[in-house]
Specification:
The complex is a heterodimer of chains A (307) and B (259).
Chain A: E1 4-13, E2 16-25, E3 31-35, H1 42-50, E4 57-62, E5 65-67, H2 71-74, E6 78-81, H3 93-103, H4 108-121, H5 137-148, E7 155-159, H6 167-182, E8 186-191, H7 194-200, E9 203-208, E10 211-216, H8 218-225, E11 229-235, H9 242-249, E12 256-260, E13 263-268, H10 272-279, E14 284-290, H11 293-301
Parallel strand pairs in A: 3-8, 3-9, 6-7, 7-8
Antiparallel strand pairs in A: 1-2, 1-4, 4-5, 9-10, 11-13, 11-14, 12-13
Chain B: H1 13-26, H2 28-50, H3 62-93, H4 96-102, H5 107-135, H6 147-168, H7 175-189, H8 201-208, H9 211-223, H10 231-257
Helix pairs in contact in B: 1-5, 2-3, 2-5, 3-5, 3-6, 3-9, 5-6, 5-10, 6-9, 6-10, 9-10
The chains are: A alpha/beta (307), B mainly alpha (259).
């Protein structure tokens, strides 16, 4: 089964290179994550892959067809959960699915027969006749996911599927995505939640300024780019400053120290000497944890705000 | 790819047309009232009010004269509102177009659906005014049934023109320019309320270039059991407006949305 492959994809708007030569391919049945700060080019990559934006250069194949030339046909095999909800507000839950199915050329009877099962999957059983504006944010996201499954796609594209959801709603979406992966679907996910990527993705790429700056499984990326352990040190208000402590003393214990405001992040391979040191320091609190994807992400893309 | 390449048309527009129809069905009564109230008020108010002061206009009782104009005016208005405000909502505000473009649909299918949908709604509006006129005894013969294809064609022309404006619009406010600079002057120059022959010669020439004039020139004789003179020319002008404006609107929409 052919999924998505992209070779040397380039796109510029004016002088700004939004995509500066991306190459990647999805393996059947995997969840592949595109991670990056705002403006990194994630959404443009998805739009190019779907044939909605014509790249300046590069080769794209989606579901066995060249894109953008035969993108419309390729989209028959793809389900898409967009970043912004675009459910039809004038329709009920069931009508949204029925009408969307027609865009795929599906007969009403075929879609109607699938609706109970789709709503069950989305945790919306019994809500078939509910109006869209009576649904919570999480329900709308789940209905959007159900809508993306109306054509029983092989491949799912999800653009920041859990942005703006509460933890319960996020966990439910994650569970459903895991079920879909178990059914053999291939998933392309963009997110800027590192815990989401770490939980769901078999492989991921961190991108910034239109380039991949790391690619691999979450463990591989962490192992390749960062020390295995982190101790975050905070000063107690009015007592001592973590920043001053870090400048004076952290260097002898940690491989790398990053100071942001009143927090010192100490990256290290051997944590015991620093833990012993901190145990005797009053006025400093700390958190000891394994390094995670967020540490890699911040190391590679910097801590500056991206707006 | 050149955004102004020729449109690629297919029957895939039908599911999108049906989507709009399903929304309309839920709101049909206020929507029809909205489309009908204005032209009806003009037709009855001017027709009987002003008509009682006038002997004959263009060789007809004024109410009959204005009924033909009102059918075209109503069609134009309905097509224009749908192609501007409603299509813009679907494109920009509700992001319905984004959802549809994620399915195996081309933008060509989507813009064609908007065109045919707005023309369908417009034809319904025109036909409703025709029905009221017939009920008032203003229609001379079944020849007036030719007004049904005419209002659909008129709807296509004005829907296509409206879609150009929508494809360019940054916000709803932009539509005011189109009404003030194009629709309102055209209504006064196209023989809806008074014969074009009353205008200065220079304005008559301008009038001859406006699509609404051609619709009115076809509609008015059909009310009085006459075959319009030069009918094919008027039809050709309306078809040309519809085709050229649709092509341009689609090109602008491609440039806006597929960048």
């Amino acid at each position: 089964m052919e999924t998505l492959s992209v070779v040397d994809l380039r796109k510029s708007y004016g002088d700004v290179a939004v995509l500066a030569g991306l190459t990647f391919a999805l393996r059947p049945g995997e969840c592949y994550g595109l991670l990056g700060p705002n403006g990194a080019g994630k959404t443009t990559t998805l739009r190019c892959a779907l044939g909605l934006t014509a790249p300046d250069a590069g080769t794209i194949r989606l579901a066995g067809r060249p894109v953008p030339e035969r993108a419309r046909e390729a989209r028959r095999r793809v389900g898409i959960v967009p970043q912004m909800d675009n459910l039809d507000p004038d329709f009920t839950v069931a009508e949204n699915l029925l009408v969307y199915g027609r865009y795929f050329g599906l007969a009403d009877a075929a879609v109607s027969a699938r609706i109970p099962q789709l709503l069950e999957f989305a945790g919306l059983a019994g809500r078939a006749n509910a109006k869209i504006n009576t649904l919570s944010g999480g329900m709308k996201r789940r209905l959007t996911l159900a809508r993306a499954l109306v054509n029983d796609p092989d491949l799912l594209f999800l653009d920041e599927p859990t942005t703006g959801l509460d933890p319960q709603a996020r966990h439910l979406i994650w569970e459903r995505l895991k079920q879909l992966l178990q059914q053999g679907k291939t998933v392309l996910l963009t997110t800027h939640f590192m815990d989401e990527a770490e939980r769901l993705c078999h492989r991921l790429a961190i991108m910034d300024k239109g380039r991949f700056i790391a690619e691999g499984s979450p463990r591989e990326v962490i192992a390749a780019h960062i020390e295995p352990e982190v101790i975050e040190v905070y000063g107690e208000p009015g007592e001592s400053s973590a920043a001053e402590w870090a400048k004076a003393e952290a260097g002898q214990f940690a491989t790398r120290v990053e100071i942001t405001g009143e927090t010192a992040f100490c990256y290290l391979t051997e944590s015991r000497p620093l833990l012993r040191h901190l145990a005797d320091r009053h006025g400093l609190r700390y958190l000891h944890r394994p390094a995670n994807l967020e540490d890699v992400f911040l190391k590679l893309t910097g801590r500056d705000l991206r707006d | 790819m050149n955004p102004f390449r020729p449109p690629s048309l297919s029957l895939r527009f039908v599911p999108v047309w049906r989507r709009n129809f399903l929304v309309w069905r839920k709101l049909a009564i206020p929507s029809l009232l909205g489309n009908l109230a204005d032209p009806m008020i003009y037709m009855l108010g001017f027709g009987y009010g002003l008509g009682s002061l006038l002997p004959e206009v263009g060789g007809l009782p004024y109410i009959t004269f204005i009924a033909a104009g009102a059918v075209c005016f109503s069609t134009m208005n309905a097509a224009t509102f749908e192609a501007l405000y409603s299509a813009f909502s679907r494109m920009q505000v509700q992001r319905t177009w984004d959802a549809i473009l994620n399915a195996p649909m081309a933008l060509d299918d989507l813009v064609l659906a908007e065109l045919v949908w707005a023309a369908s709604k417009a034809a319904l509006s025109g036909a409703a005014i025709l029905a009221v006129a017939a009920a008032l005894g203003l229609v001379a013969s079944p020849l007036a049934l030719w007004l049904l294809p005419l209002v659909f064609l008129t709807g296509l022309a004005f829907a296509a023109l409206g879609l150009i404006v929508t494809a360019l619009a940054p916000s709803y406010d932009f539509f005011m320019y189109y009404f003030t600079l194009f629709v309102t002057p055209m209504t006064l120059l196209s023989g809806v309320f008074f014969p074009v022959e009353q205008l200065p010669v220079a304005l008559q020439a301008l009038s001859a270039a406006l699509p609404l004039s051609h619709a009115v020139r076809l509609a008015r004789p059909l009310f009085s059991d006459e075959v319009p003179q030069g009918a094919w020319l008027h039809v050709a002008v309306l078809v040309a407006y519809a085709v050229a404006a649709f092509w341009l609107a689609l090109g602008l929409a491609r440039r806006r949305l597929l960048k």
